[in-house]
User: Fold this.
Amino acid sequence: MRTAWRSWFWNIVLMVVMTVMAAVLTGVALSQKNAVSAVGFGIAALLCWTGFFRAPTLGVYAKPRGVVVREFTRTTTIAWDEILGVELAQGGGPPVVTGPTAPVTDDGARAGGRSPSS
Assistant:
């Protein structure tokens, strides 16, 4: 049974982008004569290196405690008792983006605390 859903292609693209940005920012930070600028570029480089290491873990995972959604800036865990059902769409056509969606919990609210009407 499949326990992870992620787009390896886009995860790799993100890793490449983060690597290039981090390398450039690291080089600029090391070449700065102004200490404030060097620290600023260094912090930006550190954030990009963090993104590089975070990129391969992005996706949706089924774990014993629930469904774990790993996004770039946060991780959300939805407990199994809050999930009404999981649907996997099977299709032969090209991928279609239908807009943002979120799992619906028992009380009708979307995961993250927003109601379906917001």
